[in-house]
């Protein structure tokens, strides 16, 4: 890996695109080289091919200061097509670098290279990067830390003595490049075999009696540690606890939070949480435990794999002092009491206690919305081409899908041009190999969304509701539109929660609740004073969450569930934010290394569009 910090002078317009005025500013250019390759790693007595960056798991941490320009050269030496998504990085007027295959770019083919250029203006906190191809996010990921421009003394909380990334992941004893192939063949029993903290499985697992290494955090009495917690697993929310210690939550998804003290943190796939921990316990060793939760029966049950690391005091044994009376023996670590694996209320309460610091918020909450969407999230099924699924044969011959408003997202395999190019070049989408379908404002029919009977696969009620459309789902928003969305989890064929991630934007989380959303009474519960801002919102099982966002970042942005199987099954849509009327509200041209709109029909249409535009704008 190569990491360089270079001080350079650019124009403000070139770096952050906020203004057409070319004001010279000094910025640091942080340069990384990511070599993606497949290596063999051995855990649990089995050697497994693993796709990683620079031979590391987790991958290298990107450590920058707010306002920096980040350049990442990706060299793909793996056998897979790759893109890297910079999860939570706002990508202001820079959708070209968002890293979603055939949404914002062509995938990086094996033995090919691609350079991402990112600006991190206006953000501080913990984000992360990961592969945006099916399955490989489990091993292709790393932390992306944005520090305040004025240093740690400008944090809106006590300056920590040390900052520590804590990445919760999972371990698979299979080649994850096969995950999507199996899924397309309707093989859906692939599962991880263990969980990890910072790539280490921990002592709950062993190989022929030899326990696996676990993550160890050495602490000094009285000092404060800022844990930057990231959930990089494919499909489980996790609870994190440290025996004998409490957390003070100070940020989530790179947005500051009013300090909130708790003994447990809930973090869903895609989310990040920053929390202070003070080493104020008696000298000794204390387990740090991460435990997944899942919906109870009758939902399908999967094996639950906890993992644990160690918080270890650098106590005065080294100086010959005796242990304090009542302190845990250094040979017997203290274990925290964990929630039950089916306890999802702890997650609900944790999120209910998060509120923002309005004085440190990047944008103010708009008072009113311009448009509103009600989006149901659930499972369904569709009939593939070439099969007969009519009548009683539907269940036997149809294929499961995940949906938003009963539409399952699907990109045609013969797409010629990424959707961002289609939008930017004003191509006709059909001639580019894709037909777009507008995400409806609401589901096609109203029903009791959280009826527990719907979770049972053998009921006539669920069979009537599950048939779904499969399409390339998009929704267009005019620049500057204020959008209210209610995500409603359903019980249809399952009752799981759904972590919904919106690229290129943050969302104000106005309220959450259980059961069916009822605007007549639930709007009155909206927090319009200090709602937290997130890029990923956890929609509770058999419940709902209301969010508001401003469509102020022109481009083509993916909105999807961060459970990998839900994403592979189609719980996604593309949000197209149109250009505004000023230079700082128009998506700039693609960078020089970005493949141009090369499709013949697209080029011809773009030329005609430009001619029409010139004719329209020419003086009389």
TrEMBL record:
Which reactions is this enzyme annotated as catalysing? 4 hydroquinone + O2 = 4 benzosemiquinone + 2 H2O
Which GO biological process entries does UniProt record here?
A: lignin catabolic process
Q: Which UniProt keywords apply?
A: Apoplast, Copper, Lignin degradation, Metal-binding, Oxidoreductase, Repeat, Secreted, Signal
Documented EC number(s): 1.10.3.2
Q: Which PROSITE patterns does the record cross-reference, listed alphabetically? A: MULTICOPPER_OXIDASE1, MULTICOPPER_OXIDASE2
Q: Which GO terms describe its molecular function?
A: hydroquinone:oxygen oxidoreductase activity; metal ion binding
The residues forming the signal peptide are: 1-22
Q: Name one Pfam family in it.
A: Cu-oxidase_3
Extract one GO cellular component term from the record.
Answer: apoplast
Q: Which InterPro entries does the record match to this protein?
A: Cu-oxidase-like_N, Cu-oxidase_2nd, Cu-oxidase_C, Cu-oxidase_fam, Cu_oxidase_CS, Cu_oxidase_Cu_BS, Cupredoxin, CuRO_1_LCC
State the compartments where it is located. Answer: Secreted, Extracellular space, Apoplast
Cofactor: record remark: Binds 4 Cu cations per monomer.
What coarse category fits the chief subcellular location reported for this protein? Answer: secreted
Q: Which domain of life is it from?
A: Eukaryota
Per its UniProt record, the required cofactor names are:
Cu cation
Q: Which residues form the Plastocyanin-like domain?
A: 36-149, 163-290, 440-580
What does this gene product do?
Answer: Lignin degradation and detoxification of lignin-derived products.
The family note in this entry says: Belongs to the multicopper oxidase family.
How is this protein named in the record?
Answer: Laccase
């Amino acid at each position: 890996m190569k990491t360089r910090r270079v001080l350079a002078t650019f124009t403000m317009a070139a770096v952050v695109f906020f203004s057409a005025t070319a004001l010279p500013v000094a910025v640091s250019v942080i340069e990384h080289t990511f070599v993606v390759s497949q290596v063999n790693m051995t855990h649990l007595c089995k050697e497994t091919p693993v796709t990683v960056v620079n031979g590391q798991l987790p991958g290298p941490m990107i450590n920058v200061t707010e306002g920096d320009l980040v350049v990442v050269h990706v060299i793909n030496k793996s056998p897979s097509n790759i893109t890297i998504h910079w999860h939570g990085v706002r990508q202001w007027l820079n959708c070209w670098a968002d890293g979603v295959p055939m949404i914002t770019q062509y995938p990086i083919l094996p033995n090919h290279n691609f350079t991402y250029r990112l600006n991190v203006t206006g953000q501080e906190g913990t984000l992360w990067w990961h592969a945006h191809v099916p399955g490989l996010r489990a091993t292709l990921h790393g932390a992306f830390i944005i520090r305040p421009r004025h240093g740690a003394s400008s944090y809106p909380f006590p300056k920590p003595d040390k900052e520590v990334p804590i990445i919760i992941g999972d371990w698979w004893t299979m080649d994850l490049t096969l995950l999507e192939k199996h899924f397309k063949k309707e093989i859906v029993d692939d599962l991880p075999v263990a969980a990890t903290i910072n790539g280490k499985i921990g002592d709950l697992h062993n190989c022929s009696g030899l326990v696996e290494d676990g993550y160890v955090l050495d602490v000094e009495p009285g000092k404060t540690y800022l844990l930057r917690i990231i959930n990089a697993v494919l499909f489980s929310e996790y609870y994190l606890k440290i025996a004998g210690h409490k957390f003070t939550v100070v940020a989530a998804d790179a947005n500051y939070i009013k300090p909130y003290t708790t003994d447990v943190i809930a973090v869903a796939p895609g989310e990040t949480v920053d929390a202070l921990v003070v080493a104020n316990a008696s000298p000794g060793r204390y387990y740090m435990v991460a435990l997944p939760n899942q919906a109870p029966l009758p939902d399908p049950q999967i094996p639950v794999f906890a993992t644990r690391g160690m918080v270890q005091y650098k106590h005065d044994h080294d100086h010959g002092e005796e242990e304090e009376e009542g302190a845990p023996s250094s040979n017997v670590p203290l274990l925290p009491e964990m929630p039950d694996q089916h306890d999802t209320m702890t997650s609900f309460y944790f999120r209910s206690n998060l509120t923002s610091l309005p004085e440190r918020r990047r944008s103010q909450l708009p008072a009113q919305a311009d448009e509103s969407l009600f989006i149901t999230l659930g499972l369904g099924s569709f009939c593939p081409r070439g099969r007969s699924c009519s009548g009683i044969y539907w269940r036997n011959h149809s294929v499961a899908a995940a949906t938003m408003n009963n539409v399952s997202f699907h990109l045609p395999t013969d797409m010629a041009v990424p959707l961002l190019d289609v939008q930017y070049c004003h191509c006709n989408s059909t001639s580019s190999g894709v037909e777009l379908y507008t995400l409806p404002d609401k589901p096609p029919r109203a029903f009791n969304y959280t009826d527990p009977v719907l979770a049972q696969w053998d009921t006539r009620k669920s069979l009537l509701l599950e048939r779904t459309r499969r399409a390339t789902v998009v929704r267009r928003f005019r620049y500057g539109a204020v959008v209210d969305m209610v995500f409603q989890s359903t019980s249809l064929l399952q009752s799981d929660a759904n972590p919904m991630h919106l690229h290129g934007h943050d969302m104000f989380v106005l309220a959450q609740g259980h059961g069916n959303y009822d605007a007549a009474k639930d709007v009155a519960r909206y927090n319009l004073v200090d709602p937290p801002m997130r890029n990923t919102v956890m929609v509770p099982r058999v419940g709902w969450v209301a969010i508001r966002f401003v469509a102020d970042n022109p481009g083509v942005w993916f909105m999807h569930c961060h459970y990998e199987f839900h994403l592979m099954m189609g719980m996604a849509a593309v949000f197209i934010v149109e250009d505004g009327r000023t230079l700082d509200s128009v998506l700039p041209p693609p960078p020089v290394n970005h493949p141009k709109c090369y499709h013949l029909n697209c080029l011809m249409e773009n030329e005609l569009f430009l001619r029409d535009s010139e004719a329209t704008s020419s003086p009389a």
